[in-house]
Amino acid sequence: MGKRKPVPSAGARGAKSRPKRPKSAKQGAELREENPQLAEQDDAETVDTESGAPKAVQHEKKSNGGFQGIAQSDEDNSEDEYDASNGDVPGGMVNKGNDCSDETETSCSFHRHVSRIITNEEVKALIKQNSKFKWEMPAVDIPRSKWVGTGETMQEACDDHLHDVKGKLRNHWQHTLSGHLNSRMGFFSLCNSYRDIMHCNKKPFYLKSNGVDSSTMDAYLMHALNHVHRTRDVVIRNDAKLRNDADTEISDDNTYLDQGFTRPKVLFLLPLKSFARRIVKRLIQLSPLQQKNAMGQFKKEFGESDDEMPEHSTKPADFDLLFAGDIDDHFLFGIKLTKKSIKLYSNFYSSDIIVASPLALKRKIDGGEHGKEKDFDFLSSIEIVVVDHADVISMQNWAHLEAVFEHLNHLPSKEHGTNVMRIRPWYLDQHAQYYRQTILLSSYLTPEINALFNGLCFSYEGKIKTVTEYAGVLAKIQLEVRQVYERFDTSSITEADDARFDYFCNKVYPKIQDLDEGGLLLFVSSYFEYIRISNFLKSKEASFCRVGEATSQQDISRSRLWFFEGKKKILLYSERSHFYHRYKIRGTKHLLIYSLPGRKEFYPELVNMLGESENRKCNVLFSRLDLLKLERIVGTSSARRLISSDKSMFVFC
């Protein structure tokens, strides 16, 4: 797949003052006269070419003076109206409170989360509090790991959190998951707390021998479905109350404050189409809704059957599984849940769930390739964001993901059919980002994931993350190789790249430039380092060739042949190139790791490339700031010794 150059993220929109809330239909009309852009809507039904769905935004005037558009209530009301006999709303429409039905309405997590109103003072305090992880609990089913968190301590034992789940969903999950339900409840309980979650020891499906590890995926899909159903139930129930009582006036109390600026509430961000297909397929299986619309289009674009492994592959099994399906990284569509059906490719402003790749969503935010008007208001009311396989996204363009987060939960530029008298107060206070839950999932932790979690995730409920003691992967090396680790000093993270480069130029390169023997495989982990070292070797007129993510297949083949035959002494090799191709570089006699790979399984693969050499050498450069990578490779305890020791040279055999 092609690699794209980083696109600088657009600056976040400036803060706007809190919109006025009308207390009656008359004041609602006055508000629209004062703000003409709020009443701006298309009179005709158009087609959104990116979602492939009708784009209707006409208003329907209600008897109580409110305005209801498709963004918050469906155009097909007959599909969403509740029949008291179906068991969804016990006691018909007589329901005290506005968020949860059943006997647990006031105690369920959803009601508790959306009903609390936080002040500006609390916002300032929680930003400080969310940086202090002060409690921990065991991470069941996650080897050598524990959960640490901010805010109130969570219970170690997982109670039956299905009491928070709507009846139809609960019954369907008990039937569908059968004996596997308990294995999902641990992570589901964390999601149901509405805390920001960073799980960076998630074993992805392509690293398991059975192909799929669905417990974590099932848990966050169950949480997303429950949140959407709860949200829709409240809106539909209140719609029915207002229709039944024409004299009702919507006021500033909490009875009818049940909406955001727009309808979409859940955002799934995934790196590849094959991953999106797995998510949607499982979402449909976990939903009790029987009717599925637009499945034909979905199968055409994402494939009809499960991805099959190549029969005679020479690549590692995890590589074949990871890239077995459609590896396109450009997709964006909406999913709408009604009473009876799941509708794929729904208009974004009619959707409950958005499924996207960071690249496609970034392009949508920027207005597309044809100079369209920028339109990302459908991200204004996102309440749950799930970023799965963040480690794979880091091998694409992390800047796209950061840009998406910077455009979440802003005030919309248009109304989009919203009933302004029913918007929750924390949306108007521009506090939506503090109610948004972010779930970051990755097989390993990177500084970029850490920065995103610490800098752009601010749920007022708190944060929780995994902390893991790693055993390392040195035991997977099949050869007897003397691995020399050289530590260089750096005073700060901003100077780390320059310090590494200076150490290589002044301490390492002089030792290798005079050697007559070739076969030096020079591995770098980032594109920036790849370009920098390439330019340096050119300036020294070194005998080298290179294999990077942007190198053509013809040049790759030529470089590998030259290196194997000894015509070029040095082969410069990037981690992204190894990620997307997993080449076995023949002719390697000396391995020099300029910067450690982020994916720990790459390290033994690189060292094992020395198998054809009789005089094997391996040198690794690192600093104290490389702890995250170092502990995954040599183990947590050894990494700490390497970081804290007074010595700067270490040997592993």
List the helices and strands and how they pair.
Layout lengths: L24 H10 L11 E3 L4 E3 L4 E2 L5 E2 L8 H4 L28 H7 L4 H10 L5 E4 L6 E5 L17 H11 L3 H11 L4 E4 L15 H30 L21 E4 L3 H14 L4 E3 L1 H8 L14 H6 L9 E6 L3 E6 L6 E4 L1 H9 L17 E4 L2 H4 L4 H9 L18 H4 L8 E5 L5 H10 L6 E6 L14 E5 L8 H18 L6 E5 L2 H13 L4 E4 L5 H13 L4 E5 H7 L8 E4 L8 H7 L8 E6 L4 H8 L1 H9 L4 E4 L1
Quick overview of this protein structure:
The radius of gyration is 27 Å and the shape is elongated. It is built from 22 helices and 22 strands. It is found in: Nucleus, Nucleolus.
Textual characterization of the structure:
The protein is 34% helix and 14% strand. With 653 residues, it is of the alpha/beta class. The strands form four sheets. The chain has an eleven-stranded mixed β-sheet. Strand 20, helix 20 and strand 21 form a beta-alpha-beta unit. Helix 21 (627-634) packs across helix 22. The radius of gyration is 27 Å and the shape is elongated.
**Average pLDDT score:** 83
Shape: elongated
Strand order of the largest sheet: 5-6-15-7-14-13-8-12-10-11-9
Strand content: 5-15%
Separation, N- and C-terminal Cα atoms: 37 Å
- Major sheet summary line: 11 strands, mixed
**Using DSSP, what is the number of strands?**
22
Proportion in helices: 25-40%
Q: Which runs of at least 5 residues are low in confidence (pLDDT < 50)?
A: 1-17, 22-71, 81-104
Please tell me how large the radius of gyration is.
27 Å
**Number of helical stretches of at least 4 residues:** 22
What structural class do you assign from the helix and strand content?
A: alpha/beta
Biased composition (Acidic residues): 73-83
Main location: nucleus
Domain UTP25 C-terminal: 474-652
Pfam families: Utp25_C (PF06862), UTP25_NTPase-like (PF22916)
